Amino acid sequence: xxxxxxxxxxxxxxxxxxxxxxxxxxxxxxxxxxxxxxxxxxxxxxxxxxxxxxxxxxxxxxxxxxxxxxxxxxxxxxxxxxxxxxxxxxxxxxxxxxxxxxxxxxxxxxxxxxxxxxxxxxxxxxxxxxxxxxxxxxxxxxxxxxxxxxxxxxxxxxxxxxxxxxxxxxxxxxxxxxxxxxxxxxxxxxxxxxxxxxxxxxxxxxxxxxxxxxxxxxxxxxxxxxxxxxxxxxxxxxxxxx
Length: 242
Fold this sequence. Notes:
Elements: E1 8-11, E2 16-19, E3 24-29, E4 37-39, E5 50-55, E6 58-65, E7 72-78, E8 81-88, E9 95-114, E10 125-127, E11 130-133, E12 136-142, E13 148-149, E14 152-160, E15 164-173, H1 184-199, H2 209-221, E16 223-224, E17 229-230
Antiparallel strand pairs: 1-2, 2-3, 3-4, 3-5, 5-9, 6-7, 7-8, 8-9, 9-14, 9-15, 10-11, 11-12, 12-15, 13-14, 16-17
């Protein structure tokens, strides 16, 4: 299980998610920061649920945000090759988008979507591409098959150099119709452009400029857009420092 200091933040100025170094999203809540969670393995490793992209045979992991954005890129060096996972929360979509690219060799990647609503209190009803429970619905879209497997959706994707796969989880109220399938690349490009455009307004170029710019991005991600109110932490009753 990841330590709290091993998580990276994703955000869309409405809610947030935490991504571990192992490629597992162990916290996410929709549609607001104060909504109940849909993934909360960070609170309960057994019952909390997660959204995992796990290359097999990992030897080394390194990660960084794409410059001037809150879009995270994690590079997994594996026995058979290299996989890059790019994660973001598209603005205005109440969703998590994951791009999985094999950049060298051939690697098997285990993808698991295991939603648990109300802080892990219950398992939603799963059907192909959807998880519905109470007032919440998650819509699962992917470029490769991701079938229901008991109380989760899971598959092993075999990727070779040059292959790109996508997985996306989006939220709506349970009474709403399923949204149309998005353009994955367009959502990623638009998210990158939003963050770069917003940070372009930062004119500071003095001491520790890189740290100042990164701090500004974090604070923006932790600001609830409709009210411009800043939150103390994106999770529930967890430490704000590692």
